[in-house]
Amino acid sequence: MLLDEREGRLHVDAGLVTFASGWSFPFVAGSSFAEIHGPVPRANAAGVFARAEAFLLRLPPGAAYRRVNWAFQPYRVLDHSLDAAADWMGAAARFSRTATDGDIARDVYLRVELQHLIRLETSGAVLFLIDTRLLSVADVARVPAWASRLTAVLTSLPDDLADYKGLTGLRPRVVDCLRRLSAHT
């Protein structure tokens, strides 16, 4: 996506998004940075996105910054956009209700987004790139340090953030699965 500055604020002015997660490019096109991040629990009240926008506006031309974002989802589907919700949302809700322990290990994925933000030299706009990777709970558990760290994060995550990260109803089962599988590694 291309974020351009108008009146001291960043706005989404252009983009090509193939694998959104829980949002839709046509919906956010033209929106301000603050409007896009409005649904994120806690972060707006704590001023996180206001500080993030100020940071991006201070990036010098040519500078690049990387960050990681993560969530959980059932099934190995990259396009979790609102545009494709009819294809994945019903199956995800059913999965949350009916998944077995084996299903959790095999079919629940840690979704990691490596996000690059680059301040363009000529225009001063910010180019926002997302590289998305999926890793099953079973694969995470194969690396004990990853399983241990992820278990610690999941057990300490406040409920509203767990809901936002796609863990509603699955968090205790994912934690149990990580502990069980990593104990056998």
Can you walk through the features of this model?
- This protein has a five-stranded antiparallel beta sheet.
- The protein is an alpha+beta fold.
- It has helices spanning 25-28, 33-36, 48-58, 85-98, 101-107, 137-141, 144-156, 159-164, 171-183; strands spanning 2-6, 9-14, 64-74, 108-119, 126-136.
- Helix 7 packs antiparallel against helix 9.
- It has one domain (2-137).
- It is built from nine helices and five strands; from the N terminus they run E-E-H-H-H-E-H-H-E-E-H-H-H-H.
- What's the overall average pLDDT, rounded? 89
Distance between the termini: 41 Å
Q: What share of residues is helical?
A: 40-55%
Overall shape: it is elongated
Determine the structural class based on helices, strands and strand pairing.
alpha+beta
What integer value in Å does the Rg equal?
A: 18 Å
What is the topology?
Elements lengths: L1 E5 L2 E6 L10 H4 L4 H4 L11 H11 L5 E11 L10 H14 L2 H7 E12 L6 E11 H5 L2 H13 L2 H6 L6 H13 L2
Antiparallel strand pairs: 1-2, 1-5, 3-4, 4-5
Helix pairs in contact: 7-9
Main traits of this protein?
5 strands, single chain, 5-stranded antiparallel beta sheet
Précis, in short:
By secondary structure, this protein is an alpha+beta fold. It has helices at residues 25-28, 33-36, 48-58, 85-98, 101-107, 137-141, 144-156, 159-164, 171-183; strands at residues 2-6, 9-14, 64-74, 108-119, 126-136. α7 (144-156) runs antiparallel to α9 (171-183).
